[in-house]
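Structure first, sequence second, as always.
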């Protein structure tokens, strides 16, 4: 029994009926609680099977376990159940995601797939099933297109995933984008376990760039809010009370734009945030510091020659607040020389001074997945690679449904090319390096996107060369630029809106319903290659 309540607002005199069925309608069933972990919080009407739950359960955060016996006087049946009361807060809504399920009814879902879906999500997130909280479910009838077909019911489910500490206490939620990416990558596995068909993630209200205008820089932010439409569903196995939810959007200015029309750009490097003469690079909605040798940190604030490893009791200002060594590296103080990192595992895998993973080898069929790129208006990516393969994918970021916007960096017929799509318009920018790039040596590649223009630079070309000469017939072979030109359309489709995971080194083998249209087909995703120094 799952009882969701709106932000601690427990319903007045709630009653939930124990699901029991007797084919003999003349029988009178009697209900009895044989055992319960918190008996004073649950009251059962012996003749009607109505269960009353105390509002105190909202604050427990853990399910009440009980054993219920139902009898018609001659025959009886016993079942073990749980009651979980969850307060659906605004924080929970802000960290929620939706799943769409094809051809399923609400009752059928609760009878056959509810527990399995929760377990499948818990497996891929690596958490307990009790941390996966479903709080709303809605059904939509999809009318048949022909007389030979039947109408079907599709479901939409809202859920959040709690975080817990070592004592099992809740403290916040997993990032919904992180959970969505894991479900996306493991869609086939979860669908098989739950015996249902998960539909591709929908990109929501912002997919049509409703906040884009020719002269402004606005972000589209979707959000969820309460409705007064709360329902209780009952199947043979589950009683489920929903908290009604609706989804909407708003259009605030992007972080680095101001003004009534969001058309005034801010230079976020103006205050010189990078310490010790570090170079500040303005990027969309933020900045990035390129530190001088011996310095590290977001703002180059850490002097590696003077700083010391974190201590339980901070004895000097030079002690760091957290471990600077990545990938479980061990921080060690070096007298007179600051600190050093002792890396764990394969020495070839972590080759940076802070145990960074700077170089990865990709065999055919392998890839690494990262969260989606958030840059919409300006994008600049640098990477190095080495391969002997004729064609293959280096980097890809698109949308969950495989449609509309994407970026891809590929080796194609021995050359490097950069492809991007704005809504449904695809642009290809290709290099033409003498001798190609499939000689097994390290090659640098930079790609940039701004003002509907894609730029590619290979090895030692300069950005200015690509901008000034990349589109001319006598262009430098190692650089090129191409702008999207769309006739008879406003300049609203000018930003990248990427929602799915960023894939490096290869691409997930997607089901048929996730495949990309033929006009956006990618180079073969299976390629043996080395990639290093991936920067955005």
């Amino acid at each position: 029994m799952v009882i969701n309540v709106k932000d601690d607002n427990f319903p007045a005199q709630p009653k939930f009926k124990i699901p029991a069925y007797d084919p003999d309608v003349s029988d009178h069933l009697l209900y009895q609680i044989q055992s319960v972990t918190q008996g004073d919080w649950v009251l059962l009407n012996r003749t009607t099977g109505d269960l009353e739950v105390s509002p105190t359960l909202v604050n427990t955060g853990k399910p009440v376990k009980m054993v219920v016996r139902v009898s018609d006087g001659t025959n009886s049946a016993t079942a073990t159940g749980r009651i979980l009361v969850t307060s659906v807060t605004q924080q929970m809504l802000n960290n929620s995601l939706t799943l769409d399920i094809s051809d399923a009814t609400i009752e059928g879902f609760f009878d056959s797939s509810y527990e399995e879906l929760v377990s499948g999500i818990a497996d891929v997130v690596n958490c307990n099933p009790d941390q996966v909280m479903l709080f709303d479910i809605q059904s939509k009838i999809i009318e048949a297109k022909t007389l030979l077909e039947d109408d079907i019911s599709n479901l939409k489910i809202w859920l959040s995933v709690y975080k817990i500490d070592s004592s099992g206490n809740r403290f916040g939620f997993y990032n919904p984008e992180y959970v969505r990416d894991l479900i996306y990558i493991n869609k086939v596995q979860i669908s098989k376990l739950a015996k249902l068909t998960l539909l591709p993630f929908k990109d929501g209200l912002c997919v049509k760039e409703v906040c884009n205008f020719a002269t402004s820089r606005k972000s589209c932010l979707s959000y969820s809010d309460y409705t007064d439409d709360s329902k209780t569903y009952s199947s043979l196995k589950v009683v489920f009370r929903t908290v009604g939810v609706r989804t909407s959007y708003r259009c605030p200015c992007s972080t680095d734009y101001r003004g009534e029309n969001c058309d005034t750009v801010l230079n976020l490097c103006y205050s010189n945030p990078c310490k010790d003469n570090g170079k500040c690079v303005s990027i969309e909605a933020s900045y990035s510091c390129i530190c001088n040798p011996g310095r590290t940190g977001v703002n180059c604030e850490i002097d590696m020659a003077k700083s010391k490893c974190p201590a339980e009791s901070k004895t000097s200002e030079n002690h760091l607040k957290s471990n600077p060594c990545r990938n479980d590296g061990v921080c060690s103080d070096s007298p007179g020389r600051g600190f050093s990192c002792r890396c764990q595992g394969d020495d070839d895998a972590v080759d940076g001074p802070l145990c960074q993973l700077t170089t990865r080898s990709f065999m055919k069929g392998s890839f690494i997945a990262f969260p989606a790129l958030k840059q919409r208006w300006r994008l600049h990516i640098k990477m190095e690679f080495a391969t002997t393969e004729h064609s293959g994918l280096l980097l890809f970021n698109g949308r969950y449904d495989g449609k509309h916007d994407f970026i891809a960096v590929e080796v194609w017929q021995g050359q490097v090319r950069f492809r991007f799509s704005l809504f449904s318009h695809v642009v290809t920018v290709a290099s033409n390096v003498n001798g190609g790039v499939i000689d097994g040596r390290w090659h640098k590649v930079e790609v940039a996107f701004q003002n509907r223009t894609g730029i590619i630079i290979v090895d030692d070309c300069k950005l200015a060369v690509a901008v000034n000469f990349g589109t001319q017939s006598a262009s430098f072979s190692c650089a090129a630029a191409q702008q999207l030109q769309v006739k008879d359309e406003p300049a609203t489709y000018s930003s990248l809106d990427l929602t799915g995971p960023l894939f490096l080194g290869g691409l997930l083998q997607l089901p048929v319903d996730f495949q990309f249209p033929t006009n956006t087909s990618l180079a073969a995703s299976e390629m043996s290659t080395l990639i290093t120094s991936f920067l955005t």
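Margin note: The chain has a mean pLDDT of 84.
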